[in-house]
């Protein structure tokens, strides 16, 4: 949603699946370090280590989300 394509997109589905398993996503230079960190943590290949694995507050407390008024949302 930040860059217009899924993080491991490839026209060739087999290559895309291989990227999912073996690669880290690549980010354009305009993606902030906080956004990059949030996405990398959400895309952790180990589900038990993914951001949010221990509850929604992990995601809500990430620096990328610091400007969100969770009560208003």
Number of domains: 1
Cα-to-Cα separation, first versus last residue: 19 Å
**SS class:** mainly alpha
Taking pLDDT < 50 over at least 5 consecutive residues as the criterion, the unreliable ranges are none
Task: Please indicate the percent range of residues in DSSP E strands (runs of 2 or more).
Answer: under 5%
Number of helices: 3
Given the C-alpha coordinates, what overall shape results? globular
Beta-strand segment tally: 0
Instruction: Please outline the major beta sheet.
Output: none
**Helix-strand topology string:** HHH
Mean pLDDT: 94
> Which percent bin holds the helix content?
25-40%
Structure description:
By secondary structure, the chain is mostly helical. It has one domain. The protein is 34% helix and 0% strand. It is built from three helices and no strands. The model has no long low-confidence stretch (mean pLDDT 94).
Features:
single chain; 73 residues; 34% helix
Please outline what is shown here.
The chain has helices at residues 13-22, 33-42, 56-60. With 73 residues, the chain is an all-alpha fold.
């Amino acid at each position: 949603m930040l860059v217009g394509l899924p993080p491991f997109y490839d026209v060739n589905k087999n290559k895309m699946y291989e990227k999912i398993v073996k690669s880290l996503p690549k980010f354009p230079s305009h993606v902030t370090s906080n956004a990059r960190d949030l996405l990398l943590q959400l895309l952790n290949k180990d589900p038990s280590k993914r951001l949010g694995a221990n509850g929604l507050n992990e995601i809500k407390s990430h620096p990328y989300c610091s400007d969100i008024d969770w009560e208003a949302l």
